[in-house]
Design a protein that fits this description.
heterodimer; A: Rossmann fold; Rossmann fold; 4-stranded parallel sheet; 55% helix; globular; B: 976 residues; alpha/beta; Nucleotidyltransferase, domain 5; 5-stranded mixed sheet; 43% helix
Chain lengths: 414, 976
């Protein structure tokens, strides 16, 4: 069946990583390459990506699967890689959403294009599959975790500065600078824990805070949704860029929230369905350690006194009380609803809720909850947008424009 | 002065307001995608009017977005513009319902302002009505007139134009009254607007109707009034509210109209769309191509020079009729390819009449019909034979290419593809109701852009930069085309793009081929759509090889029928019955509709009555009354679905000291009902189960559905809850559960996200579940862990009732006993049905799906249809346990999926078993299962058949699918 990634392969194979969120994955990529792997973060775009996706994946499967697999196949076919020296990495969550099938669909696709020799590495924390040549070490995990924390911070800061900066490009330049610097840190095995990390976080915040900004009021828009559609410009037709062009400030909830949520669900499961999973106590303990790093990042933001500080995960969770139960754990689950509420509370009343056309979990936790969220927070102005290979920009933009028109009116009347 | 321009998807509206904001001028025209040009003419017309005034200008409408962006015109979103206009001109409005060409909107004004706009699916809009009208061969206004005479309403799927089309087509072909269909179309628009857009928010107070369809169609307004139970108004200038709002919000800035017109005249969008290489690099290439295909011709002879026996084949398609008359050598004597103008019987009568009179020396020996109108035509003219259309096409393809390995037929409504191996049909691919990349699809678009299909094909051939439009259903394609127009694609680029998309749809969506080269070496293409050279060329390009197209590609179904008539005649000679000229003169045809009184279903029957008492009844879900000779009186002996329905309906409840508790019979409760029924009965509750779903169940809950693309069973759940609320039960029990029953046949035992958490959606969208009128128990629990459940159930129930651990434990035990008994009963009955079928020598169909597919409203009686076709029906859960666990190539972690995989594996081991998979539209998980099940079946050359079901009840298409499968099996048997 599938080809495993062996130890020998580590030496001269190029590992391709799909690009879900450029700002995060640019840093994470460095972590993996610093552990001795040749990695390439895919940035191929264009119509051929989706063409290949539609060709090798069932057309009714969700859009992210078509994009991710299309991007891989396009890269393999046209990226100039030696097809006997290339491997692919894909995450595997193992949840009840069809997304947990991506790895299998990818392998099926490879078989269909006569490339079964290409190994696909499953990135998961549940030991669902073994790849002798690709070991996730505790160090790597720790570094990846830090990379996400940094990524979240850079994303939050640059988003809050970019629309207001006096000299265009300052915020983005800082993102590039810090990505390079952090990569160097990881190479030298420092800067991802404790004091060193704290110093980095503080410096990042200080440097962003020092960017000269215009005083003006902009429409504040939050983006929530299925994780790939939310972050990936390839998936959401460069939604964030579009919104910023329309004069908005954009807030995208953190990636860490999703990771915490994933781990946290094991605890809820135990309560509802009995003890079948890794001890809830261990998870609880680990989570508590992780929250400390999250706190460090928030404190750094607070120090500069300039930014909208994201609320901690544990508080975010409380927002859902009386609304969506924590038992909803497929896809983005209850977290998505909580994120909408959080955005409204922190002044981002206008929300684009992104999902692939026909996304099953989002029938529940996104579209199914919009009514409840707007009832609870009357200011909320939410537009659900479906993404699909043929859902056109015109259609999407028109709906977003309607949301913006209402937002603008509210801003003017305020 | 203020100018507002509203560029809709098909029309452009212009309004000029004077300085007191009164409407001075209005103008309305179709723009045929010539947006800049139309805008120019409209503005030129008001030049004099505005001369000497300070003038402001703004633009609105989805199709105007690109223009506004590129020329830096102020832009106002159209819904928002409506709102501005309403607040200014009709401030006492509570709700606005505005239907446009491709958009539908509802705006709520009174407190808590809200706007709703249709999503990506564009059902229930102006172009939807247009499309439906063209199916009836009338225009919108005629449709309105017809609707006035309607006597009854058929249920037509309203969610999507394509679905509705497949509801209407059979009605047309069965001879239902046009007037009734017309009103039904309008009613479906009403249902769609209310269900899809209002999403639970009541429409009341002062309602205002705006937009083209509501302005022009009085009957549509009436239908809205009637359904809403109020009287809405359609104000003066109802077409222009968007333009008026746009004008109102135009900034007070002076513009020069001349400059504006100049800019529009010199508007060049550039080429912003993704294009693909042209179909032909030059005219020479086209000539070579044409010459090559010109060689493939059907052998013809002049009818004048022939006398003697002949054979007639008729293909009564969805929108056309095709007829062929051949001599015994298969040479074509006479043919006809015509629109059926909504009345296939009349069309054939004329055809036959004229043939008989002009060629009295030719006798039609035997005749055979196929297509949508197969039975109607056969009965009307007493044809000797009829043939399922797939077979008809296969038959004709074989005559042109003996060693054909693949046949693709793209007709007006259908795509039919067959893989041929060793001279028999090896695999069949038919399009879903929703992916209609067919002839009528191309026609719709060419008409919308103001061209005939022929002109469109010619333009496509010359296209320099065909647009890459992808390969999706018509509704999506509408917006893709809109986008391409915005991006500056020319009409010919769009037509070429559409031709390519038809091909891609067939190859990648219907056939699910990844490598077109694998289809085979000898490919025959048929169907009227392939007469379009642009489609043919795109197909060859995509395939990378040459194919055969007969010059009469559109006639192939009819030709196959004629061949069949001839072959049958040679095989078994019998008396000819086909109406003669004399009989034809006596021919009469009338239709009437009535409700069958055979049972409580009260099927709406359409009865076609011809002279001398021949008649055809359609619309019946069973044979009890219509053809009692084939009616099976004890269907549970041959039909597992019926057995399940009976089993569940026989669960008896009794009065209990703890009062009533309601259980909704839908989704996973279709399987778990015995468990919960017995659990609660044991605890001393009187169990109230909602009644099996019907169309009314759906309508009851329709307005609270929050997502219009969710599966039909989930939508029905809303109605079940409503029913329980009506029954005034004090509590409803419907728990959430990530995990299903664990049968240890897969890697995990999940529920799908919808089954798992649907109670959450219900709670937050049906207000009664939250306002205290009922206790809604939707806590999280699972039946997977038998030892943990008592503890969890105690936790859950003690929140609502004083219950003791001990009694819960006993009740859970009773529950599991009932569940086990139910599952055992299914397995035992499976054995019985298989035995019964084998006694009768019937094929056994595994109608594989999820437990709730046993619901008659969900499966639309497909099980009964199979029974009518002499097939026994069992379900996946009756046989899944008969095979051992085996690893799969996909993640196998859903309990229901694991059963289907195992059932498919069992089927591969049984000679006389076939599998048909029922897939609910919108079930994303079945994108995974369907490919995997096909792979399992294909390992042993079993044919995979999939039936997609939604709120539609187009059994005609399903029947074709089933009959094709049976015919292919029959043929394989005969070959052996």
């Amino acid at each position: 069946m599938s080809t495993p990634f062996t130890k020998d392969m580590k030496k001269d194979y190029t590992i391709l990583i799909p690009n879900m969120s450029p700002i995060h994955f640019n840093i994470v990529k460095e972590v993996i390459s610093n552990h001795g792997y040749n990695v390439v973060l895919l940035d191929n775009q264009g119509p051929n990506v989706i063409r290949e996706g539609l060709r090798y994946v069932h057309n009714d499967i969700c859009y992210p699967a078509q994009l991710v697999i299309g991007q891989f196949i396009d890269a393999i076919k046209h990226g100039g890689y030696d097809t006997d020296k290339v491997a692919l990495v894909i995450t595997q969550t193992g949840g009840g959403c069809r997304a947990s099938n991506y790895i299998f669909l990818l392998r099926k696709a490879l078989e269909k294009c006569n490339l079964p020799q290409i190994p696909v590495i499953s990135l998961n924390l549940k030991r669902m599959e073994k790849n002798p040549g690709f070991k996730i070490t505790p160090f790597m995990l720790l570094q990846t975790y830090s990379a996400f924390i940094y990524g979240d911070l850079l994303m939050a800061l640059s988003n809050q500065i970019r629309p207001y900066e006096v000299h265009k490009g300052k915020a983005d330049a800082l993102v590039i600078k810090w990505t390079a610097y952090l990569s160097d840190c990881f190479t030298h095995n420092r800067g991802y824990i404790g004091w060193a990390m704290k110093r980095n976080l503080n410096r990042i915040c200080a440097e962003f805070a020092a960017i000269e900004m215009r005083e003006e009021e902009r429409i504040k828009v939050g983006i929530v949704g299925e994780i790939y559609m939310k972050y990936s410009p390839l998936g959401n037709n460069h939604l964030q860029e579009y919104l910023e062009e329309q004069g908005c400030e954009v807030m995208v909830p953190s990636m860490m929230g999703f990771l915490y949520y994933g781990a946290d669900n094991a605890i809820t499961d135990r309560k509802y369905y009995g003890g079948r999973f890794i001890s809830a106590k261990v998870t609880q303990f680990l989570l508590r350690q992780l929250y400390k790093v999250e706190k460090m990042s928030r404190q750094a933001m607070m120090k500069s006194g300039k930014f909208t500080i994201p609320i901690p995960y544990t508080e975010m969770k409380k927002l859902d009380e009386g609304l969506l139960d924590y038992g909803v754990k497929m896809g983005e689950g209850w977290l998505l609803t909580a994120e909408m509420l959080d955005l409204v509370h922190s002044g981002y009343h206008n929300i684009v809720c992104t999902q692939p056309f026909g996304c099953l979990p989002n029938h529940i936790c996104a579209k199914g909850m919009i009514r409840a969220v707007t009832e609870r927070s009357k200011d909320a102005n939410i537009v659900p947008i479906d993404y699909d290979p043929s859902a056109t920009g015109v259609n999407q933009e028109n709906r977003i424009k309607l949301m913006l028109a209402i937002a603008r009116e509210k801003l003017e009347n305020a | 002065m203020k100018i507002g321009l509203d560029v809709g998807s098909t029309t452009m509206k212009c309004v000029v307001l004077d300085d007191t904001l009164q409407v001075l001028h209005t103008d309305y025209r179709r723009h045929y995608s010539q947006i800049a040009e139309t805008a120019c003419t409209m503005l030129a017309d008001i030049k004099d009017l505005c001369a000497g005034h300070l003038t402001s200008f703004a633009l609105s409408g989805s199709a105007g977005m690109g223009l506004a962006q590129n020329l830096h015109f102020p832009f106002v979103q159209e819904v928002y513009a409506t709102r501005i206009a309403i607040m200014k001109f009709l401030p006492h409005t509570d709700v606005v319902i505005e239907l446009g060409g491709e958009d539908a909107k509802i705006l709520f004004f009174s407190q808590n302002m809200e706007v709703r706009m249709n999503g990506t699916c564009a059902g229930g809009t102006g172009s939807f009505i247009d499309q439906m009208a063209s199916l009836l061969h009338v225009d919108q206004m005629d449709l309105n007139e017809l609707a006035k005479q309607a006597k009854q309403i058929y249920s037509i799927a309203s969610r999507c134009g394509v679905f509705a089309k497949s509801d209407i087509q059979p009605l047309v072909n069965q001879g239902a009254e046009k007037s009734d269909i017309s009103l039904s179309v309008l009613q479906s628009v009403v249902n769609q607007s209310i269900g899809g857009l209002a999403q639970g928010r009541p429409i009341k107070g002062q309602v205002v109707y705006l937009g083209g369809p509501l302005t022009f169609l009085s009957e549509l307004r009436k239908a809205f009034d009637k359904t809403l139970g109020l009287e809405g108004i359609c104000p003066e200038n109802s077409l222009y509210y968007v333009a008026m709002g746009t004008a109102l919000s135009a900034e007070e800035q002076v513009i020069e109209l001349d400059e504006l017109i100049y800019n529009l005249e010199h508007y060049d969008t550039g080429k912003a769309f993704t294009s693909i290489p042209p179909l032909f690099k030059d005219l020479g290439a086209y000539e070579t191509f044409k010459n090559r295909h010109a060689k493939a011709t059907l052998h013809k002879i002049e009818p004048k020079n022939y006398s003697g026996p002949a054979f007639l084949g008729v293909d009564a398609g969805s929108t056309t009729i095709k007829a062929c008359i051949i001599d015994p050598d298969g040479r074509l004597l006479f043919s006809r390819y015509d629109a059926n103008n909504g009345n296939p019987v009349q069309a054939i009568k004329e055809f036959l009449g004229s043939f008989y009179t002009t060629h009295p020396q030719i006798t039609i020996e035997k005749a055979c019909s196929t297509g949508y109108g197969e039975h109607l035509i056969q009965n009307a003219f007493a044809f000797e034979y009829s043939l399922v259309e797939t077979m008809a096409h296969y038959k004709s393809a074989k005559t042109f290419q003996k060693n054909v390995d693949f046949i693709i037929d793209i007709g007006g409504q259908d795509i039919k593809c067959f893989k041929i191996k060793d001279g028999t049909i090896d695999d069949i691919f038919l399009n879903e109701a929703c992916s209609s990349g067919c002839g009528s699809f191309l026609q719709t678009f060419s008409n919308a852009l103001g061209y005939t299909p022929q002109e469109a094909a010619e333009l496509a051939i010359k296209a320099k930069n065909p647009v890459d439009l992808g390969s999706r259903c018509t509704v999506f394609m509408n917006s893709s085309v809109k986008q391409a127009q915005k991006d500056g694609a020319s009409v010919s680029d769009i037509f070429a793009g559409l031709a390519i998309s038809v091909v891609k749809n067939a190859l990648y969506k219907v056939i699910r081929s990844t490598d077109p080269a694998m289809l085979g070496k000898h490919i025959v293409v048929q169907g009227g759509t392939f007469l379009n050279d642009a489609v043919l060329r795109s197909f060859e390009l995509e395939l990378g090889s040459e194919v055969i197209r007969i010059d009469e590609a559109g006639l192939m179904g009819a030709y196959g029928c004629a061949l069949h008539a001839r072959d049958q005649h040679m095989k078994v000679p019998q008396q000819s019955t086909t109406l003669s000229l004399a009989q034809l003169e006596q021919f009469t045809h009338r239709t009437k509709t009535t409700h069958c009184k055979g049972c409580t279903n009260n099927c709406l029957l359409t009865i076609n009555i011809f002279d001398d008492g021949r008649k055809l009844v359609s619309g019946n879900k069973c044979d009890r009354i219509v053809s009692p000779e084939t009616f099976i009186s004890n269907p549970e002996q041959l039909n597992m679905y019926v057995f399940k329905q009976q089993y569940l309906s026989q669960l008896k409840s009794r009065k209990g000291e703890r009062g009533k508790i309601g259980l909704p019979l839908q989704l996973n409760f279709y399987e778990q009902l015995p468990f919960w029924h017995s659990f609660f009965t044991h605890l001393g509750f009187e169990v109230v189960v909602s009644t099996p779903s019907t169309r009314e169940t759906y309508l009851k809950g329709q307005s609270t559905i929050s997502s219009d693309t969710i599966c039909y069973p989930a939508k029905l759940m809303h109605g079940h809850i409503k029913e329980l609320l009506e029954k005034q039960v004090p509590a409803i029990f419907y728990p959430c559960s990530s995990y299903n029953i664990n049968e240890e046949k897969g890697d995990n035992h999940f529920n799908c996200p919808v089954v798992a958490y649907y109670p959450e959606v219900l709670r937050h969208n049906i207000s009664e579940l939250q306002d205290g009128s009922v206790t809604f128990i939707s806590d999280y629990l699972s039946l997977a862990d038998r030892s943990f459940l008592p503890k969890r159930m105690h936790q859950v129930l003690s929140q609502y009732y004083p219950v003791k651990k001990q009694e819960i434990k006993a009740a859970v035990k009773a529950g599991y006993a009932s569940l086990d008994a139910y599952q055992k009963a299914i397995r035992d009955q499976g054995k019985i049905i298989m035995e019964q079928a084998r006694k009768r020598n019937w094929p056994i169909m595994v109608l594989a799906g999820r437990p709730y597919h046993a619901d008659a409203e969900v499966n639309h009686g497909i099980d009964g249809l199979l029974l009518q076709c002499s097939c026994a029906v069992i379900s996946e859960d009756a046989i899944a346990h008969l095979v051992e666990k085996q690893p799969r190539k996909v993640l196998n972690q859903w309990t229901y999926h694991a059963r289907m995989y195992d059932a498919a594996r069992y089927v591969t081991r049984q000679e006389d078993m076939q599998l048909i998979q029922l897939v609910s539209f919108g079930c994303g998980l079945d994108a995974v299962t369907s490919d995997e099940i096909r792979d399992i079946l294909r390992e042993t050359n079993k044919i995979y058949t999939q039936i997609k079901i939604d709120e539609i009840a187009n059994l005609g298409a399903v029947k074709i699918r089933i009959r094709s499968l049976l015919a292919a099996l029959q043929e394989t048997k005969e070959e052996q």
